[in-house]
Specification:
Blueprint (H helix, E strand, L loop, with lengths): L6 E5 L5 E12 L2 E9 L5 E13 L6 E6 L3 H19 L4 E5 L5 E12 L4 E8 L11 E7 L5 E5 L4 H13 L1
Antiparallel strand pairs: 1-2, 2-3, 3-4, 4-5, 6-7, 7-8, 8-9, 9-10
Length: 175
């Protein structure tokens, strides 16, 4: 395997060599897997042509060895779940908003959930300060908001009643 470009060769079903490029590797259920794309004759990735194999890792050379086909439907299902999870993580950039606190200081915050209430006829947002801490270690704040033409948060307003707070807390407890 070429470590700089992370490419390797396999022998295709037709007996011909096929150049491949590593998309990512991961370990699961005591096996190592490589997700890879196939390359055309010019070295360009063939769009939508991804596959996976198992491999052993050579501790001495740092290379993948003993590439083997994925054997079971259960393994393919697990690989698909991993891929979908990673795609979700890469596609979803956090929505950031600027919140002015009670002292007039602006703070950048990350939206963690938006929802609406037919009962109150309002939209609500749950958000946390944008920091490097894990989300579950940050304080969660809530507000009602006015949505712009494309659904973006344009104005934050305080939650006005105890009934609204109870509704918001119920939603938060389901997340």
């Amino acid at each position: 395997m070429n470590e700089e470009t992370q490419e390797f060769m396999i022998i295709g079903k037709d007996g011909k060599e096929q150049q491949c490029r590593v998309v990512f590797t991961f370990d699961a259920e005591d096996k190592s897997y490589v997700l890879f794309s196939l390359l055309d004759e010019t070295g360009q990735e063939i769009p939508g042509d991804l596959s996976a194999m198992t491999f052993d890792y050579d501790d001495n050379t740092g290379e993948m060895t003993n590439l083997q086909p994925v054997e079971t439907d259960a393994e393919w299902e697990m690989i698909n779940e991993v891929v979908l999870t990673l795609l979700d993580e890469f596609e979803e950039e956090p929505q950031l908003i600027t919140v002015t606190d009670e002292e007039g200081k602006d703070q950048v915050c990350e939206v963690i959930h938006t929802f609406s209430s037919e009962q109150f006829g309002k939209s609500y947002v749950l958000y946390v300060p944008a920091t490097d801490e894990p989300i579950d270690e940050r304080d969660i704040f809530a507000a009602q908001y006015i949505a712009g033409n494309e659904g973006q948060i344009e104005g934050l307003y305080p939650i006005e009643s105890d009934e609204e707070w109870e509704f918001v807390e119920e939603v938060l407890n389901t997340l």
